Amino acid sequence: MSDLDGAVVVVTGASGGIGRAVSERLRAEGARVVDMDVRPPAEAGGHFVAVDVLDPASVDAAVAEVVEQFGRIDGLVAAAGLSEEPTPAEDMPVEVWDRTIGVNLRGVFLTCQRVGRVMLAQGSGSIVTIASMSGNHVVNVPQQQAAYNASKAGVVALTKSLAYEWIPRGVRVNAVSPGYVNTPLLASKSELHQTWMGATPSGRFATTQEVAAAVRWLLGSESGFCVGTELLMDGGYSLS
Prior knowledge:
Elements: E1 8-12, H1 17-28, E2 32-37, E3 47-50, H2 56-70, E4 75-78, H3 94-122, E5 125-130, H4 146-166, E6 171-178, H5 184-187, H6 193-198, H7 208-219, E7 230-233
Parallel strand pairs: 1-2, 1-4, 2-3, 4-5, 5-6, 6-7
């Protein structure tokens, strides 16, 4: 029996990419998964709740719905995020900056804060945020992505801050920082694949299932002494 069997786990950004793979992995282990996104996944899986992570009222309503139905929240995977079109920093419209920082950082904060309140009241819970290797390394070739890099560095710092504040009250917070992952978004950038793989010593992209496995480990009890940990899985990109 999985230690997640019967656990109530919220996954944001669950309609595609990493979030979808995480949701499927956790459901396979018996977790009662609540998928959250602005739109439902193409294939129904767990319970779905629509949410706009930029809107505090929307997040409040979504969290309240989960608590009303299940009575508790044991886990959160904050996977909602986006990447802007590559833009030189000096030319970046402030709207692009605000949107990227908003979804990737404000959205993670609001989700963690609201779910965190439930967990703190319970005295238990585990949160995993999805950051990026871009939070540690300026992944700027050939794409220029100052807003994305800054947002993911913020997610790493937020994760560590929440972990320090909340572990005395029974809530663990950790992060997974993937490198290039074979998602539909990555597939749409086929002209850059050789460049990206050439910069990655393993010579390939991660699969969403590999990221989901890392998330599952950090979420569960086997990683119980991990607090504020950032699990970097970048295929060796950061070694050069």
